[in-house]
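Review form for a predicted model. The reviewer records the input and the model, then writes brief findings.
Reviewer: anonymous (R2)
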Amino acid sequence: QVQLVESGGGLVQPGGFLRLSCAASGFTFRRAAMNWYRQAPGKERELVAGISTSGLTNYGDSVKGRFSISRDNSKNTVSLQMNSLTPEDTAVYYCKAITSLGNHYWGQGTQVTVSS
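Model under review:
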């Protein structure tokens, strides 16, 4: 079955950095578009970053210039490098796959807390 397992979340001070990873299985990873979303308490889930099968990337306005998404098709992983973190980045971060068949799958999420 499809599995998306996020890791790398935690507590970090403002101005710090974290690297999230998502390990995928159960589908043809190289043919799937991959995305990172986040959801803060009381807010709607929002797109953070996406990467296409060809490596094209897009970012939410609030993270442009600070976050970077990448994928490793040999390891079936997608990563999110997050720099210059602020308390407003505090959220649960989710990995999402959109497969070549048009199916959408979500991971269970990983908590990121930015606080001094």
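Findings: The CA atoms of residues 3 and 25 lie 5 Å apart.
Further findings: The two ends are 40 Å apart (CA to CA).
Recommendation: see findings above.
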